[in-house]
Amino acid sequence: MLIDWFTVAAQVLNFLILVWLMKRFLYQPVLDAIDAREQRIARELADAAAKQAAAGQERDAFVQRNADFDHQRAALLEQATHEVASERRRLLDAAQAAADALLASREQKLRSEAASLNQAIRQQTRQEVFAITRKTLAELASASLEAGATTEFIRRLHRLEPAQKSRLDEALASATEPVLVRSAFELPTAQRAAIQQAVREVFASERPLQFDTSDKLVGGIELSVNGQRVAWSIDAYLGSLEDDVSALLHENKSAPATGIPAA
Prior knowledge:
By secondary structure, the protein is of the alpha+beta class. The chain has five helices and four strands.
C-alpha cells in the first residue's frame, strides 16, 4: 500500500487548523466562561458569607435586644409590683386612718352627747332636788331652824382653815365695800348681833356688817367681802347629794349598755 504523503500532510494540517480553531473559538471561550462562572460563584459565595455574617450580627443584636428587653421588662415589673404594693399600703393606711378618725369622731360625738345628757340630767336633778328642798324648808321654817343655822354659821367661822382665814383677813383689811351677810331668811336682831360679835372675835375687825336675804341660799348664811366668802347652808349638803348623783351617772355612762367607754 502506498502512502500519500500529501494527503497525510493535508490531514495533519487540517487537524492542526481544527485544533487551533477549536482552541481559538471554542475552548478559550469555554475556559473564559468557566473562569467567569467561578468568579461569579466566588462573588456569590463571598456575598453569601457577608450576608451570613451580617445575619449573624443581626441575630446577635436581636438576641442582645431581647435580653435587654427581658431585663427591662423584669425591672419594670418589679418596679410596678413595688409601686402597687406601696400604693396598696398607702391606700390601706389612708383607709385605716379615715376609719380611725371616723370612729374617734363618732366616739367623741357619743361622749359629747352622753356628757350633754349627763349634764342635763344633773341639772334637772339638782333643780328638782333644790326646788323640793326649798319648798320643804320654806314650809318647815321656824325660829329654831333660823337659830340653828346662825349657830352653825358662827361655829364655821371659829373653825376656819388657816389659809381661808388669812384670805378673809386680807379681804376685810382691804375692803372698800360693805361686808355682806346673806341668809335665806330674815335674821332677828339677836342673831345679827351674834354674827357681828363672832366676826369681831375671829377677824379682829370692827367693820359693820350689811345683812340681806337671798332665796338662792337653802337654809343657810353666807358672808362675802372682796370676792372672799364663807358660808354654812343646807346647800352644801345638797352638793354632796349632787356628787352622789354625778357618780351614779358616771357609772351608768361606763356601763356596756350605753356603748360609751368610760372617760
